[in-house]
Amino acid sequence: MDIIRTKSDLREIVNKALGKGQTIGLIPTMGFLHEGHLSLMRRARRENDLVIVSVFVNPTQFGPNEDLEAYPRDSEKDITLMRSVNADIAFFPDADDIYPYGYATYVQVEGAMAQTLCGRSRPIHFRGVTTIVSKLFHLAKPHRAYFGQKDAQQVAIIAKMIQDLDFDIELVVCPIIREADGLAMSSRNRYLTSRERSKAKVLSQALHSAQAKIKNGERSAAAVIQNITERIASVKPAEIDYVSVMDAVTLNDVQALRGKILIAVAVIIGRTRLIDNVQFEV
Ligand code: PAF
User: pTM value?
Assistant: First the structure.
């Protein structure tokens, strides 16, 4: 595996690969890799000639009071994990190379899709995500880009950006990977104290019990939201940011459950903001 630190080195490798007619798979990450990221890499390995993993804690997607400085980092371990799944290129750019002095251009999906859910409490977050992801798309020129379903709103927004900006890239969305007790894997789980960690399973439990109720005939979004809210609120210290039932593609709220449905939650446990979701066809 080659470790690349500059945009120009990445461009050279990418252009060589494209010249040989190779296909490229890109996995954008912020590092501190876990089994969720590895599942994306394994799939990319099966589907592409060249697998590029980027590791960049992207400052433009963090608000002023968020955890940019504290975000966990462990590049040595990341490299070992990337090697274990036979990634070809690890791209660790510097912030100055990505956003040089005077940088002024942003990519933003307008409208409700980016303002709802996490967009309400993190107003600049998705603008930062779409900006860095489009830059990575231009640099890595992937045929396929791999993202995890855990960040359901991120996936919907990137799908919209790919469509609206005519990126000729296949978006591959991979299932959520969970810990044994159901907690969705996330680099931020490491912020949880052991007491908080044991409470955190309530997110997936509430979502899965709502899903079971829907299987048994429940069709009211309001009843589903109430059920999940009560279940999560019964656990202390859990502060609900949102519980939402939506159309999985548009992210518009629905009243009656029909078609492709996304149920998403964001909950603050202690100082850690956790998100989780389930998506299914009714
Ligand atoms: O999901 C993430 O880790 C980040 O939002 C991403 C897509 C790598 C952009 O920085």
Answer: 0.96
